[in-house]
Design goal:
Elements: H1 5-25, H2 32-40, H3 46-53, H4 61-97, H5 116-130, E1 134-135, E2 141-143, H6 144-147, E3 167-168, E4 172-174, H7 180-188, E5 193-202, E6 213-223, H8 228-243, E7 249-256, E8 259-268, E9 274-283, H9 285-290, E10 299-306, H10 307-315, H11 328-331
Parallel strand pairs: 1-5
Antiparallel strand pairs: 2-4, 3-4, 5-6, 6-10, 7-8, 8-9, 9-10
Helix pairs in contact: 1-2, 1-4, 2-4, 3-4, 5-10
Bound molecules: 3,4-dihydroxyphenylalanine (DAH).
Length: about 325
């Protein structure tokens, strides 16, 4: 180590240059303390220089002390500057990262869709509304009396069997059909009566074409001179409006305890198969008597349609379970 003032000056200049270079090369605030300590720390580069002091003559020492102090503050200044530079850069990076680009397009919300069953139901009620049918509704938990007895289905009727009906305690059932609404309506009103009653019905049955919960719509038209020809005309008109003019419709003789005569109505689906979509018939005189009507004076027809079946034909759905499983890939198509 040199031991005169000039060489001390040179040594200090070199230290300052090194410190400046080192501080300028710093990339992260976190690296700063270590770099600074290499110069100003206890074991830093100024240590050996301080020891030089002792080798200088007493006259030289004050000047040497001043030189060292000013060099130290220069070095300290370099690191202060570096600190400011790095902190500013870090702040800018953070701002950049959290920047919101207000010109970006907004996040799109997927609109909800109408379920196919609801869509068909809305169409059906609109159409029947045009034909003068008034919307009514009734309970899903029904008495056996309304669900069966008053509809001419006595206690030993096979449809009351455990396999089909969900029984609730106390003579109640989950309604197996919307037909009790015929009775409930006629009990409250006098003819002419023209109503439709859509709703959920329940049966103990589950496979590709049967669901334990499905939807029916009951229609009823009672007046002085309503005939089987009206039934056929109205239902054919209705189905053609719903499915298109050239849709094939077929009436088959059938049996229901609460209608006489009774029919079942099929439409041909797009695969060429006949699909049963509704049951209908002239309201049985016994049912009319049950509600206090005189079958000699008034008569009419009733029909019950399966809304889920109509949706299947309409949207070419082959498995009824697709309507209940809430698979987004299926529902998104509507
Ligand atoms: N309730 C019958 C069923 O669930 C459908 C039905 C048939 C309703 C004939 C009617 C009717 O109103 O006249 O299978």
């Amino acid at each position: 180590m040199p031991c005169d003032l000039d060489s001390l000056k040179r040594e200090l200049q070199k230290l300052c240059c090194d410190a400046q270079e080192s501080s300028q090369q710093l990339k992260r605030v976190a690296d700063l303390p270590e770099a600074k300590a290499r110069f100003l720390g206890r074991k830093g580069a100024f240590g050996p220089v301080m020891r030089l002091l002792g080798q200088l003559s007493p006259e030289e020492r004050p000047a040497a002390g001043e030189l060292i102090n000013s060099a130290k503050s220069k070095v300290d200044g370099c690191f202060c500057e570096a600190k400011m530079r790095l902190e500013q850069a870090a702040l800018e990076a953070k701002l950049q990262e959290g920047r919101v680009d207000v010109t970006m397009p907004g996040r799109r919300l997927l609109p909800g869709g109408m379920h196919p069953v609801q869509r068909v139901l809305d169409e059906v009620t609109d159409l029947l509304g045009e034909l003068g049918f008034e919307l009514v509704s009734g309970p899903e938990v029904e008495t056996e009396h309304y669900n069966f007895d008053l509809l001419n289905m006595p206690a030993d009727h096979p449809a009351r069997d455990m396999q089909d009906t969900f029984f609730v305690e106390g003579g109640l059932v989950l309604r197996t059909q919307t037909s009790p609404m015929q009775v409930r309506t006629m009990e409250k009103r006098q003819p002419p009566v023209r109503v439709m009653a859509p709703g959920k019905v329940f049966r103990c049955d589950f496979d590709a074409t049967h669901s334990p919960t499905f939807h029916q719509l009951e229609g009823l038209w009672i007046d002085r001179d309503v005939t089987m020809a009206d039934l056929k005309g109205i239902l054919t008109y209705f189905l053609r409006r719903l499915f298109g003019e050239d849709r094939e419709v077929r009436f088959r003789p059938s049996f229901f305890p609460f209608t006489e005569p009774s029919v079942e109505v099929d439409v041909r689906n797009d695969a060429g198969n006949w699909m049963e979509v509704l049951g209908a018939g002239m309201v049985h005189p016994q049912v009319l008597r049950n509600v206090g009507y005189d079958p000699e004076q008034v008569q009419g027809f009733a029909f019950g349609m399966g809304i889920d079946r109509l949706a299947m034909v309409r949207y070419r759905i082959t498995d009824i379970r697709a309507l209940f499983e809430n698979d987004q890939r299926f529902l998104r198509q509507f």
